[in-house]
Amino acid sequence: ADFGLACACLRERAHSYSWEDLLSMAGDGDAMEVDAEAPAPAAEATEAAEAAEAPAPAPAAAEEAPAAAAEAPAPAPAAPVIEVTPAGPSQDETCEAAVKATLDAPDNAGERIRNAAWAEAPDDVADCVELAARQLLYEALDKEDQTTAKKIVAVLVDHTVHCEQCGDRGPVLNVAHKLLEDCIDAAPSTNADGWWDLVESHKGALTENPAIFKAGKFILLRLCNSLLKRLSRTRQATLCGRILMFMAAAWPLSEKSALNMKGLCHTDNVTEFESADQFDAQNADDDFDDAGDGAPKEDYDTYSGFWSVQKYLSNPPSCFKDVKGFLAAVDVTCSALERTACTPDEFERERAAMVERQAQPMNVEPEDDTQQMLGSQKYLTNSRLLRIQLRDPQLRTQVCSQLYMVLDYLRRELESMNARDWASEPKARVRKILAGTPPTGPEAAGSLDLLLEHEVQWAAWKKKGCPPFEKEPLPEKPKQKRPYYAPPLPEVLKRKQARRDALEKKRKDEEPPLEEKCRRLASQIPTLKEHLQEWRDADDPAEDIDDEYHPRHDPVWKFRALRLVMKEKLPWFADMHDANIEVAVDKMFPDRPKRTDRPAPPPPPPKPVVKKKRVREESPPKEEDAKRRKDDRDESPRSRRERSARDRP
């Protein structure tokens, strides 16, 4: 009702005041800002005509003109004026009539609206288009006609794109953004999906063009933030995610408005839980069994420690001020989770059930509010629910993930401060609990490890002040012709030697070490069976290999075969007379087929018999003979008899 009354008042004001009065009464500086840098075509034409009709200055005035020009500041360059292209019979219509006519015939809507605005108000084109479109838009919203309102926004987007192509700059490029913001602000949160579909359908026109995005990026940012504040993070989690994805894709990563430059924590998220008196009152009934398993109830220390740890998780730097309290809360939480952990048999059953569910075909159905709530919820802190919550796999996974990330942050901060590391031990304990939570505990732990590896680079980028990732290309320098220079001969030789040394060093760096070469050569040596397979294939009639290609004619192949036989089948050498390789082939392949049409290999030529010549013994020299006779004469008879008996055969 209030919105309808505001629309009615605005219509009355629009019809009761003139154009100049509306401009003077406008309070929104951004909406009613006139582009002063772009002069009107009529005014510039008038100035050009006056300059042409003015007489030439006197000589004295001509001499004084340079001095005055040197003292006066240089005027700012005027923006180029785009000549308005006639739009046919619709050129004489008002801007409001042009917008209304393009709703049914959207072809060339941007050109038609631009021409009508320039004809109606050449000095205030942006304000003319905005007021005309806003009048029609408020009438459509007052009648709750969303179809007409969306058509108005669509033709205004087309008008914005056309103005950018014609070279217009300034407020005329963000008229569509303002009207879109008015539509979403006026729509209830339950109908926000339909309006956000309109934003996503024009995403390319509003965000991909640099000039249009620069003119309306702050309006889009205000629109997205206001809509996120109105939406429910539990009931409309999908729409909130779509808005966040749109913002992440439209704005660069280094956008200052999206960065937490001061490193502030979300301390408004306070977790309230029961006091000791309230806990005793809630658990006064001893017969009440929450979990239904007959297990003993949790005491208040466990309850308070489990929920008080959220105070530290919402503000991790506060852990350094109260280390003992934080570690005590973490110890109580881990003890409670370990005490209620599932057995190995239960873990395996949950994993098997998960695999069975994944094997079944997926039934894709539209999500309802209950399914959307599963991704973003805040758990109840009633003490009677604690034992049930401790066994809930989803709650265990979320609490362990929070503790794991905060403890890793504290560990990195302690490492940078060169302080004692008291966060690694509870971190390992939390990871063990997380990995043992069915059904996706190991996968969740691995994903967190990968996420924290990336977090190191992210934290380093944040500490540097979030420098932009986008870098402009370097300007191309004009190529200059180098003057010819002939260096002396020693310098030329030194350069050549330096190039040779560089190539040699590169070859040595790329060349593998000797051990690697030996390993490669050893892996290339075939086995005896693989090597003799060539002989078997050559003898196979089905292969039909000519005799001239038979391996027995290759001495290198036969030498390698003998080496392999000596390495693997040394006893075969006893049967391989004259190094006959075919004996080894028969032993390796006893059932191999043989060709009968091939002539047997010729026998080796007989070895020539070399007759030994009898060498005639030369008679000993006379001196040796005389000496032997003298020795015989000097020898005693007994010695002579012994020598004769020894020499006798």
Topology, number of strands:
0
**Element order: H for helix, E for strand:** HHHHHHHHHHHHHHHHHHHHHHHHHHHHH
Radius of gyration: 49 Å
Q: Tally the helices: what do you get?
A: 29
Gap from first CA to last CA: 151 Å
Mean pLDDT: 76
Q: Main sheet? A: none
Structural class: mainly alpha
What percent of residues are in strands? under 5%
Instruction: Provide the low-confidence segments as ranges.
Output: 1-82, 84-90, 366-375
Task: Please tell me what the overall shape is.
Answer: elongated
Helix content: 55-70%
Explained architecture:
The protein is mainly α and 649 residues long. It has 29 helices and no strands. Helix 5 packs antiparallel against helix 6 and helix 25 packs across helix 27 (581-588). The chain is elongated and about 155 Å long. Mean pLDDT is 76; it is low at 1-82, 84-90 and 366-375.
In short:
Helix content is 59%, strand content 0%. It is mainly alpha-helical.
Question: What key phrases describe this protein's structure?
Answer:
649 residues, mainly alpha, 29 helices, 59% helix
Topology:
Blueprint: H1 2-16, H2 19-25, H3 41-53, H4 59-71, H5 95-102, H6 109-120, H7 125-142, H8 146-165, H9 175-186, H10 192-201, H11 203-208, H12 210-230, H13 237-250, H14 276-282, H15 300-313, H16 323-339, H17 344-359, H18 369-373, H19 386-390, H20 393-416, H21 424-435, H22 441-463, H23 489-510, H24 514-524, H25 528-539, H26 555-568, H27 581-588, H28 622-634, H29 637-647
